[in-house]
Structure formats: structure tokens, C-alpha cells
From TrEMBL:
This is Alkaline phosphatase D. It comes from Saccharopolyspora flava. InterPro entries: Metallo-depent_PP-like (IPR029052), PhoD-like_MPP (IPR018946), PhoD-like_sf (IPR038607), PhoD_N (IPR032093), Phospholipid_Metab_Enz (IPR052900), TAT_signal (IPR006311). Residues 46-144 form the Phospholipase D N-terminal domain. CDD domains: MPP_PhoD (cd07389). Residues 323-342 are annotated as: Disordered. Residues 156-489 form the PhoD-like phosphatase metallophosphatase domain.
Amino acid sequence: MDVSKLSRRHVLLGGAAGAAALTVGAPAAWSLPGAGAARRAGVFSLGVASGDPLPDGFVLWTRLAADPLADDGMGGMPGKTLPVQWEVAEDENFTRVVRRGEAQAAPELGHSVHVELEGLRPGRDYFYRFRAQGELSPAGRTRTAPMPGAMGELHMAFASCAQYEHGYFTAYRHLGDERPDLVLHLGDYQYEYQAGDYEIPGGNVRDHVGPETETLANYRQRHAQYKTDADLQHAHAAAPWVVVWDDHEVDNNWADEVYEHPEEPQPNFLERRKAAFQAYYENMPLRRAQVPQGIDLRLFRRVEWGSLATFHMLDTRQYRDDQVGDDEFPTQDPARLDPKRSLTGAEQERWLLQGLRSSRARWDVLGQQVMFAEIDYLNGEEKAYNPDAWDGYVGSRKRVIEGWKQAGTRNPVVLTGDVHTHWANEIHDGENVVATELTATSITSGGDGSADLTDEEKAYLAENPHVKLYNNQRGYISTKITEDNLEATYKVLPHVSKPNAEAQTLATFTIQDGTPGLNRA
């Protein structure tokens, strides 16, 4: 592999009429009018969503937009606050409504609505919808977390990296069809480029609207374009989501307050970051605790699923030191070994380690963005690593591994996105396997991909024997978690350049309680 100057963007492996509204008496809530079709009419053109479940509630979200692609980012809505009614029911026909209320959609928040429900029953499905301007929204299904101490079973799916231009969001539709209990999105929910700036071989299959996102209006418009996709709306309406970002929600490879190209600083980068954070909050089912404060937004947080699992959701972008070696991929820069370098920042690291010490969950799961396991990308005797992953922050990784050991973490599992390829990795501390990493490929980023490995890929996989699976197709990972094991099923699509591809099972792995490592089913 050539260790010449390359942008990681170009060398990522694999990177070379809307959801139908549910009306009373209409049980077929999950049918779609057509893959990728978008709701262009009505104020609920962006669909609905829910997220961050607790045992007694969750967040409900929608955003009013009669003209979602308006250049000013305001979705064709008037510059005044509008009332939005909401209701929650125990059945999808809304014959047993348990809560109703009214929220205010203010222009200062892009006419978005975030309703935080509490006082509901634990561990059960609920259905919700909104009404505004005389219109009824699509309906969504959501779920409360189990009561504290409960074990049971959890169906959780996770995904990342959905570049609108690179393909159709069919994988989201299949994910939604599974009707999981919980969905984790691990970053790169949207991409910042103007049309054609991130081109794949063979050409992009659809275009972004607007310029590269730099202003609040730009980011609002871009989020709206993604949200008009019916397959994405379908996945949001199927289950509660827990979201964290990576880089493209702001700008490729940004690091804390550092622009992608430190040698060419962007004078308005902090204003750009502030705008991106504001739009992210407006367009995600997040709680008041995540309201941005200027250029800051505290996204790291925990979601507990009874005593079965605790999800420690990390932000590996906002607090990191800049990438070593001028962010060249792969890197041999010894600065990556500096123990003072941090991927998470000191505060988040303390929060994580304290959470591991206090956790009583059967499974402690890190939901985060970049590859955790050590991966040598240079064939031959020499070694080289991805500076944008934990390999560029070896001290951070060592402290987390030591944290697992000191806390006696029973079943540490790392969930990862970012690299546009499926991986199944065993995480080592010396000779010992101490944890497991499940890495989901992209929804579309990188285009169709291929099930066939190149000779170069085969060679470096041979040099990384702790990698138990690698695949360069698009898809997501679906898991079933019980007190005895975690089962991970890798889903792939044969293509994303055309809609309606069928999802296929690539492989299934199990992790046994108390025994880190991967067992192929």
C-alpha cells in the first residue's frame, strides 16, 4: 500500500410521496408508496421520529415544512410560532389514546417540535402522531425502555453513513421493516458537500440541493432533503432512535475547533460548527439536555435497557485532539502513541469510566463512530494506521481497555460506523481478547460496493487475524441481545444505485455472556 499523501475521504474502504399517514381504522401503517419517494406536500413533509427512551417515556419529534427544500432553510413556513397538537396511544388505530397535548413550533428552532413524555408504562409499544395547520401527520411506533432491573430480550439495529447522492436508502426501509425495539445511528446521518463534490465511480445517482453546508439555512435545507426520503422516514417511524454524530454532520474530518484543512483555516469555522449543531438538534429526536449552547452540544449520554444493556453513546469528534500526520492515511507518525492525546476529551473519558464502574448491566455497549480495534493497513513488515480512528489515539484506547478491566465489565462491546464496510473484530490487550467490535457498513456511502475482496484487501486482512469478517457492500447490523448472548446479523444489499434491492444475510456472529470474542453461527 502506498503511504503517499491521501485524504482519508478518498481511501475509506468501500469509499473508492412519503411514508403513509396512519388514520384511525387504518392498521397498515408501514406501507410505503415507493422506494425513495418523498412527501412534497403538506407541513409534515419530513415525517416523524422518536428517541432516547426511558422506562416511562421518550422524545417525540417532528418539524413543519411545507416547502422543505426552500433556500432559506425555513421550509416555507411563516416567521411565527405555530401550535402543534400531539397524541400517544396504546394501539396503532388510536382507539386507546393515553396522552394528548400541544407543543409550539417556533421559527427560532426551524419549526421543530421536541416533546418529552413521562409517566408511561415501561417496556411496551406506543403509537404517536401530530396535527397542525389542519393536517394529520404520519404515525410512528415507539417503545419505552424496560423497568430498572428487568432482563428480557432486546432487538436493536444500528447503522451509519448515508450519503444521499451515492444511492437509495433502501437499507433504511429494510431496517424499519424489522420493527426493532431500538435503533442506534452512529454518525454521518447527512453529508455536507454540494452536488458532485463527493463523486463515486460511475457517477452519483442523485444530487444534493444547495451549496456546501456552511450556514444555518444550508444545514436546515440539507437535513430537510434527507428527511424527505420515504425510506428514512419509514425507519424513523418504526422505532425509537438514539443518535450520535461523526464528521459529515459538520464538515469532513473536523476535530474540535480545527477545520478539515488546518493549513488553510476557515475563518468562520466556529460559526459553521454552531450552525451545524443547531440544525442537528432541530432535526433529531433529542432531549432538552442536548439543546446547543453556542458552539457546544453535549451529545454523549447513556440509555439503559433495564439490567440487560447500557448504551454509552460517545462523541468522538467534538473534543478530540487533531489527527496526527496531517491526517494522511495510513500514517506511521509516532505521535499517535503519545499518551496525552485524547479522542474523547478528559471530561467525557471520566464520564465513561465512571459509568463503567457503576454499571450493573449484563452488556455494556459503546455506541461510537470510528474503528476501535488496532488495524494495520500496510502490507509487509512495516505498519501504518488510520489517524482518524482510535489507532491515532492509542492512549485513549488503552485507558478505556484498562477501564473495562478495573470495572470488571462483564461484556464490553463496541459498535462502530464510519468506514463504509462491515467488520467483525476481536479487541486484544496483549494476547488476550478483552472485548468485541461490531462495525456496520454504510447505508449508501461509497456506492454499490462489492462482495469480492481485492488482492490488497486479502493481504492486509491476513495481517490482522483478529478481524473475523470484512465486506464492502452496503447495509446495516441487526442484533438480538439476551442475558446469555448477543447475536449480530450482518445485512447487505446487492446494490444501492437502483431502488428496491432485497436485503440479504451476510453472516451471523454470537458473543457468549462472560466470554469476549466472536463465534460464527
